[in-house]
Amino acid sequence: MGKTALISGITGQDGSYLAELLLAKGYTVHGLLRRSSSFNTERIDHIYQGPQHPERTLLLHHADLADGVALVNLLREIAPDEVYNLGAQSHVRVSFDAPLYTADTTGLGTLRLLEAIRASGVETRIYQASSSEMFGSAPPPQHEATPFHPRSPYGCAKVYAYWSTVNYREAYGMFAVNGILFNHESPRRGETFVTRKITRAVARIRAGLQDRLYLGNLDAVRDWGYAPEYVTAMWLMLQRDTPDDYVVATGVPATVREFLQAAFAAGGLDWERHVRFDPKYERPSEVDALVGDPGKAARLLGWRPSTYWRELAELMVTADVEALEAELSGSRVRIDR
Ligand code: NDP
Ligand code: GDR
């Protein structure tokens, strides 16, 4: 019998790659689906199996991290071997506009899931999607022992979720781990995060659909990796004998400006002709520099990155150019990458 996993956030960037990984490993995958007035399963449509499928290995359940009782019921029903908590209001800028909502979903949502595991009595392991945003203004390179200094409601909520995860491990002996992941991107990245906003704009400017791209702070330094590689690290953390916390990063810094330059160059464009500043995209308090030290993940998990920011910019531009060409020619847009 293969293992069973439950993923919150399965419709997001990471959830979709993780579901693919686990299905390929023979897991039965259950995903938590938020009720939405429009379809929100675009990233997993290519692996979706309808209710009539004879041997379903991917099942979706309507639930929400705001609804603790539904989480308990779901855990009892599924009794998963592994739980991956990827669900969150994950946008840092938006968290300044909706701080309480972000705290509820991203912070308390994690506690609800931990408590639901305890209340259901199900023996399981849980992965918590912690973030480099917890380090905030702590100077780089950041590692597992770097003190947190979050700079946004999102970062604060993730710190709360991080410590709740540690607390359930210490208090109840739960196999609960934190993956402290630095920024990771892909052609499936949400369109309002800076990398995808840039690569999508490159495709649209080339096609004559857009002329200007408005951005905020170009001086911020980030450590950008490739999402499909990062979900492997999540899985590896739950396969260890003992629970622990790990930084996952490339260790290679780049500014937003450098990413911008590389992406526009990959599309044969000069970014300075098209990019303009809009203060709307600045944050009330910014995180200036995040660069991770992935040494512990390399030593204990055998995990190493193989895609770095420049190559990432190129592959995202290629994907956005191809997707737009397919859309304009009326053929189906490829999502299976
Ligand atoms: P996305 O924003 O792409 O996906 C977030 C997911 O959470 C979506 O499936 C979304 O559903 C779901 N979600 C939002 N609110 C709720 C809720 N109330 N109840 C249940 N599900 C909810 O994020 P990523 O895939 O990029 O990131 C995955 C996780 O990792 C997040 O927790 C994020 O904060 C964290 N993280 C991400 C990093 C990155 O660089 N990508 C780095 C470090 C941490 P819907 O599709 O319906 O909106
Ligand atoms: P981040 O990612 O805040 O690091 O959080 P984002 O791509 O939003 O911003 C990265 C940097 O780019 C600057 N920036 C802009 N950002 C956006 N979104 N839009 C703009 O127009 C723009 N112009 C400049 C930002 O100020 C920032 O410095 C991501 C999310 O995935 C989190 O969920 C995750 O936890 C962290 O990465 C690690």
pLDDT averaged residue by residue: 97
Quantity of strands, as a count:
13
Strand content: 15-25%
- In percent, how helical is the residue content? 40-55%
Spatial gap, N to C terminus? 28 Å
In the sheet with the most strands, the strands line up as 3-2-1-4-5-6-11
Shape-level CATH architecture of the largest domain: 3-Layer(aba) Sandwich
Task: Write down the overall geometry.
Answer: globular
Largest sheet: 7 strands, parallel
Give the number of helices.
11
Catalytic activity: GDP-alpha-D-mannose = GDP-4-dehydro-alpha-D-rhamnose + H2O
Function: Catalyzes the conversion of GDP-D-mannose to GDP-4-dehydro-6-deoxy-D-mannose.
Pfam family, one: GDP_Man_Dehyd
Cofactor: NADP(+)
Polypeptide structure, described:
41% of the residues lie in helices and 15% in strands. The protein is an alpha/beta fold. The protein folds into 2 domains: 206 residues, 3-Layer(aba) Sandwich (Rossmann fold); 86 residues, Alpha-Beta Complex (UDP-galactose 4-epimerase, domain 1). Strands 3-2-1-4-5-6-11 form a 7-stranded parallel beta sheet, with helices on both faces. Strands 7-10 form a two-stranded parallel ribbon. Helix 2 packs parallel to helix 4, helix 4 runs parallel beside helix 5 and helix 8 packs across helix 11. The model has no long low-confidence stretch (mean pLDDT 97). The structure holds NADPH dihydro-nicotinamide-adenine-dinucleotide phosphate and guanosine-5'-diphosphate-rhamnose. NADPH dihydro-nicotinamide-adenine-dinucleotide phosphate binds next to helix 1, helix 4 and strand 5.
